[in-house]
Amino acid sequence: MASLTLTNVRPWDAAPVDVMITDGAISDVVAAGTADTSGETVDGRGLLALPGFVNAHAHVDKSWWGQPWVSYGGEATTQGRIAHERAERDKYGIPSVDGATAVLREFLRHGTTATRTHVDVDLGIGLRGIDNVRAAAAALDGAVEVEIVAFPQDGVVRRPGVLDLLDQAAAAGASNIGGIDPASIDRDPVAQLDGLFEIAERRGVGIDIHLHDGGELGAFQMELVIDRTRRAGLHGRVTIAHGFALGELPAQRQGELLDALGEVGISWTTVAPVPSAPLPWRDMCEAGMPLGLGTDGIRDLWSPYGDGDMLRTAQRFAQLHRLRADDDLTRAVGLASTAGGDFVHRTGHDLAPGARADIVLLDAENVPDALVRTPRRRLVMAGGRIVAGDGELVL
């Protein structure tokens, strides 16, 4: 069995330990200096150790990362961005294996070792984007574990044939199927949700719905999703992404929705965009709702921003929610790491025995210091293999 010992690291700024790794998983964690170091060892130099980051909401299929600069164009609305992307994507070779590989490599360089990524499925590209993302993950030999959401960016029922493509994607192994703004995109929320939940029930997959609509329109669609989740018995299998409306509602309305969302086990992902309203994140966690962070798109035809660094996303979340106390700053980092395990079907994603040996080392005094400075990743280990050092890939 392949074994390695990572010596003298500070997990979550606790006392120094040695981490023993066997066949890609953490086999034991002991006080620093007490592990058997007769085999292969890596000196952790007393650095801060965190679990590999988990990007719970990505779009790795449609980035122009590594290509010449693409100027922003089109209208700055959801419908406008969809139309612009459809008109321009072929010009930039989107989707492609090389493009997805470039994004996944950036993920690894910054310490992200698992992701749930939405991959566009539509009448123009069929399932080609999913094939490309799988090929990109294979090219990195599984260093980044990738869970796929077949995503109908251009709508579900307004484009005849998209539901069939989602069904095909689920049959071919996609872990989740997506939806998008059932009211404002398809203008028929019941039809969209009926179609998605029928596939999910029959194929045994999850549902991950983008919900941008704000205010009471967004709240109304949340109620529809809650009702369908309850009736379908998909407790713990449904995720709402963005869900901007939740942060915009009065406290009493928020509380009513949180009780219902928690009851049926609906999880939530956010990319913490700065102009959005803060989420009642503490209440969400207390209601038992899994909450994960993601980058959204990275240098794509929706936005030129992004670099794949989940620590920066956690920092933005902390700034948006005006977090200052050390405990809260540490919890924000936890949302980008341990909490993300729920979104990629991992249990116990942490620096503990039994977990996959995904470890990030940083030269930081403590976790809050790492969050506010986002220092270079001194070492990134994925499945027990060193894949990056001093901010550069060695894979």
Give a short synopsis of this structure:
The protein is of the alpha/beta class and 395 residues long.
CATH superfamily name of the largest domain? Answer: Metal-dependent hydrolases
Note poorly predicted spans: none
Shape: globular
Q: Please summarize the sheet with the most strands.
A: 9 strands, mixed
**Percent of residues in beta strands:** 15-25%
CATH hierarchy: architecture of the largest domain: Alpha-Beta Barrel
What structural class do the secondary elements suggest? alpha/beta
* Overall number of domains: 2
Helix share of residues?
25-40%
Mean pLDDT: 96
Helix and strand element order = EEEEEEHHEHEHEHEHEHHEHEHHEHEEE
> What is the tally of beta strands?
17
Name the CATH class of the largest domain. Answer: Alpha Beta
In terms of quaternary structure, the protein is single chain
Rounded to the nearest angstrom, the radius of gyration is 21 Å
Topology-level CATH name of the largest domain: TIM Barrel
Count of individual helical segments: 12
Model description:
This protein is an alpha/beta fold and 395 residues long. It has two domains: 3-51 and 350-393, Urease, subunit C, domain 1 (Roll); 53-344, Alpha-Beta Barrel (TIM Barrel), CATH 3.20.20. The chain has helices spanning 78-88, 97-109, 128-139, 162-171, 189-203, 215-232, 245-248, 251-263, 281-286, 310-320, 326-335, 367-373; strands at residues 3-11, 17-22, 25-31, 41-43, 48-51, 53-58, 112-120, 145-151, 176-180, 206-211, 238-242, 267-270, 291-293, 359-362, 377-382, 385-389, 392-393. The strands form two sheets. Strands 1, 2, 3, 4, 5, 14, 15, 16 and 17 form a nine-stranded mixed beta sheet that branches. An eight-stranded parallel beta sheet has the order 6-7-8-9-10-11-12-13. Helix 2 packs across helix 3 (128-139), helix 5 packs parallel to helix 6 (215-232) and helix 10 (310-320) packs across helix 11 (326-335). The model has no long low-confidence stretch (mean pLDDT 96). This is Cytosine/adenosine deaminase. Residues 145-388 form the Amidohydrolase domain. Pfam families: Amidohydro_3 (PF07969). GO terms for molecular function: hydrolase activity, acting on carbon-nitrogen (but not peptide) bonds, in cyclic amidines.
